[in-house]
Specification:
The protein is α+β, with helices and mostly antiparallel strands and 113 residues long. The chain contains 3 helices and 5 strands. Strand 3 and strand 4 form a beta hairpin. The radius of gyration is 13 Å and the shape is globular. The N and C termini lie far apart (35 Å). InterPro entries: Endo/exonu/phosph_ase_sf (IPR036691).
Length: 113
């Protein structure tokens, strides 16, 4: 990530099963932009140590989480993990700040039976 984000003209997109719970935490880039702020009323409002570390790490590289933003169509903050014990957002789409203007929409599909 460090190598890819070194140049501001490079676009970086990560889709990952991170198993981190970030609630409505935001990176600095998201806090600076009203447009890219994450929804504070996401269905999964829990935060764990891995979630805090994720925000800190991606803050360093000026990256933003797409989950829960206004660009997420249908249901911003839609859960990505559905288990018997409950559901949560633990899988993320994360992009470099340079890629944000190119993102028109983002969608999390519901699980299929």
């Amino acid at each position: 990530i460090a190598l890819c984000t070194r140049s501001e003209d490079k676009h970086v997109a990560l889709l990952s099963d991170i198993n981190a719970r970030t609630g409505s935490l935001q990176t600095s880039a998201q806090r600076l932009s009203e447009f890219w702020k994450r929804n504070s009323s996401d269905p999964d409002d829990k935060i764990n140590t891995r979630g805090r570390a994720l925000i800190e790490e991606y803050d360093t590289y000026k990256m933003c989480i797409l989950n829960g933003t206004s660009r997420e169509t249908c249901s911003p903050g839609r859960c990505t993990s559905w288990q018997t014990a409950g559901h949560s957002v633990i899988d993320y789409a994360i992009v470099s700040q340079s890629l944000l203007p190119l993102v028109k929409k983002f969608h999390v599909e519901l699980p299929t039976e």
